Amino acid sequence: MNPTLEQRIQQLEDRAALKHLVDKFSNLADDKDVEAQMLLFTEDATVDTYFGDTLFASMRGRDEINHVFSSFLSNFETVYHINGQQTVEISGDKATSDHYCMVVLVSSIDGKKMKNTNGIIYKDEYVRINGEWLIAKRLAKFTWRDDKELNTPS
Length: 154
Description:
Layout: H1 5-30, H2 34-38, E1 41-51, E2 54-60, H3 61-73, E3 78-91, E4 94-109, E5 112-129, E6 132-149
Parallel strand pairs: 1-6
Antiparallel strand pairs: 1-2, 3-4, 4-5, 5-6
């Protein structure tokens, strides 16, 4: 059976809303506005973060996610997310996606500015609650990392 025009429009609107959710999460991370980021998660959301094959953190609920995110971001002067491709599967009020992101983290170490660039693959599960898409589950896999000293203008 072919989807109706209304169903096709809803699918497009949902895809746009999920892309906006992912991009808003990244923008808030760049601003280090973790409090606002927490509103993008369900109350009982889970986040598991891996560096390579090593589990860095397994978080349950907004309070724990907030604590870990805040602690992690406090290590960096500048945070810069660049979101790439996102594939989404939607089924009613639930959805999943895989999306790719490059994250640049800048910090000062021993008086030197260091740039840490990371390739991340996110696997998300979303739910629509009261008409709003939220992140219910996130698996973040930091798949590669490149550290370099930044050249500063003289």
